[in-house]
Amino acid sequence: MKEKVLNILQKYYGYKSFRKGQENIITSILQGEDVLAIMPTGGGKSLCYQIPALCLDGITIVISPLISLMKDQVDSLVTMGINACYINSSLSSEDYNNILQGIINDEYKIIYVAPERLESDEFLNIIKSKEISQIAIDEAHCISQWGHDFRVSYKKIPYFINNLTTRPIVTTFTATASTEVRRDILNMLCLIEPKVFITGFDRENLYINIVKSSAKNKYLLEYVENHKTENGIIYAATRKEVEKIYEGLLKREINALKYHAGMSNEDRKINQDKFINDEVNIIVATNAFGMGIDKPDIRWVIHYNMPQSIENYYQEIGRAGRDGEKSECILLFTPGDIHTQKYLIEMGTESMARKTIQYNKLQQMTDLVYSNSCYRKSILQYFGEIGLDDCKNCSNCLNEGEVIDKTLDAQKVISCVYRMKKSYGLTMIVDVLRGSKNKKVLELEFNKLSTYGIMKDYTNEGLKNFINTLVSHGFLEIKENLGSRGSFPTISLNSQSSKVLKGEIKVQFKEVKIAKEVRNKNELFGILSDLRKTIAVKEKIAPYMVFGDSTLLSMANTYPTHEDELLNISGVGQIKYEKYGQDFISAIEQYMVDNKIDKSKLEEDKSNVLNEKEDAKQDFFEVTTDQNLYEQLKKVRGKYARIESLPHHMIMTKNTLKEISGRYPLDVEKLNDVAGLGPKKIDKYGESIIEVVNKYVEENNIDVEWKEKKKKKLILDGESRKPKEIALDLLNQGIDVKTVSNKLEVSVSSILGYICEYIKDKNELHFKFNPTIYYCDDEKELIQKSINKFGEDKLKDIKKSLPDYIKYESIRAVIIEKYIS
Ligand code: ADP
């Protein structure tokens, strides 16, 4: 039996192996057992009842609530060479009669029906005369009032089953796992000693990224611009928001569609079809879109607003990457989303009991967004899966973007809100912090506060974003206030705010990074997907039903030109090979001729690429500091600093000592390979260093294997940034120049040099910098004259022309000042 099942999997579907749970479910059904299978969206449920349908004698009836999905499923099956049909209200009476005739003539192995049809006596009488092997109930949660899509007609299913001459195997499938729903399915659908399978809800290929930022629109546009050739869905909470995003995309000439309940059925259908048929890649929609979409190649889903519950969220992101290929799910969150959802709950239902459930679910969703631990783990825990490891595929695990310490700026904002006494709106707080002379600010005497104008270095928009981000992270709170012109939000403090103010907690934000589209789609992929589209149009089916993206990608990267090579690719079964194989092989062969591609050379190239990658990796020379040895070396340095009355870093820099500590040079000769040590320094300090290293190595039994650096770039403790980058990052975190100079052991003058370069490039600074402390007025005048004479880039000439006591740092400070004032 196992062989037969695998054979079907290969022959019809072209898949080489089962996904998690599928094989056990199929085996159970084939042993005649009733089944409840709970699998995540995109987990591969259909195959679990379709394969038994093909193995068992008789007909399988699939009950499905989703009319649009039925047609797609049947089209897919027919494309694979399986006889299937569907019956629902979309059929004309002629088509309906033809299908009934077909059933009488035993033409179909699988029949999809809408639950309402089960009540038709005509249908029941025909079915009664046939051998029915399996009743598969898809979306079985529709039987339960506790589920989110309750359907009255599902309650008729047991009656229908009882009326059949022989009771077939009853199999039920859903992605909704709550205990109430599970209990209702088992009881109300009258399953007999069912086997329950819960395959695990994890969808490993989905990257879960939650971004707390008020710059949603900017993020969205940038992301879409970078991913516009891939299929993606943008979900928004309201129709109005959908329209706004849609217009925004069109303005930027990004081709997109919209979908929401305010549109006519016909327009919605047209847009849905265009999306499914790959005519347009992007659709902006409310949550009305998606039920009944099983397009497998959706590469990204963006939630422009936070959904109402984790169930909704997981179901909606589940629409990405059904084909198992890597896909990205991004949730853009601002606290305003909570208010929108609360409003929707209030408007959506009268029932207090229902409202309470919805509010609870909303709270759990909000907690997820604010959580600092693995998002996937938290979601799966919510669905009852415990004891999991961190996933390493969500934004919390991967910690993408650089962490920037914003405690100081957060303290400024919080202390301003505190000093303003009453709760004010965002604009007023921004005005005070940026020192606005606005009438209201002056009337309220906010210009007398010590926090007035302390965040001038932020732009208006930048500061608004920053404060909103503080709110999204829970460091401040938004309160809705009722006024004469409706409700308005104000910002107030909470218990977290006072902790930040006291320095008990740090405020660290991650810089938001947007990944560029990097999937390996080459020119041949484009040619093959054009061919796929031509075939799809001719056969009136969706392109993915010919072959999925991942199948085309494999073809485009491996150039199969023989039957066995093509059949080896996942997604190419015997039937599809017979239908489309030759067309694809011809296209691939043509491409190879046009581009002079020699397959035998490809393997060679592949291994060359691998070698190159290896080489590239080896361009770096990585060293990890041995902290204990480093401490000992610092003592040696300290001794010389005292003897020579020089600052420590002038003897040897911190990084030189760290490099030595991690490489263990055992003789003086080897010090020539260490950065920052010239012959003079080696002469002076070499012996002492080597003595300490040797002693340490011996005492600690270290097995030293010396490696030459050979001009490779040194990476110390995984730090690949240049000193300049580190310095600017620290300054951006609010750390002052002197501290940065001490920390990095880089002179103040060099740091001012970095700032100088930065400001020339960007024209603004995002940290506080006071140039006037580096010169006195007379010096400034002299420096300015010299700059005017030589030009600000001729630093050496300027320095030479000035008296000796004027330092480089003073010159740089005058240059910087010119840019910031
Ligand atoms: P759902 O559980 O949401 O109903 P589907 O049955 O629509 O999921 O399956 C999702 C996608 O996964 C489909 O494109 C299907 O062809 C594909 N799929 C299912 N099983 C396998 C498998 N064993 N190997 C590869 N792809 C599979």
How would you sum up this structure, described in words?
There is one protein chain. Helix 22 (523-539) packs across helix 24. The chain starts with a helix and ends with a helix. 50% of the residues lie in helices and 11% in strands. The protein is α/β, with parallel strands linked by helices. The chain has a 7-stranded parallel beta sheet with strand order 3-4-2-5-6-1-7, with helices on one face. A 6-stranded parallel beta sheet has the order 8-13-12-9-11-10, sandwiched between helices. Strands 14-17 form a two-stranded antiparallel ribbon. The chain is globular and about 110 Å long. The mean pLDDT is 87. Residues 26-195 form the Helicase ATP-binding domain.
Summarize the structure.
Residues 26-195 form the Helicase ATP-binding domain. This is DNA helicase RecQ. With 821 residues, this protein is an alpha/beta fold.
Task: Fill in the keyword field for this structure.
single chain; Rossmann fold; alpha/beta; 6 domains; 6-stranded parallel sheet; 50% helix; Arc Repressor Mutant, subunit A
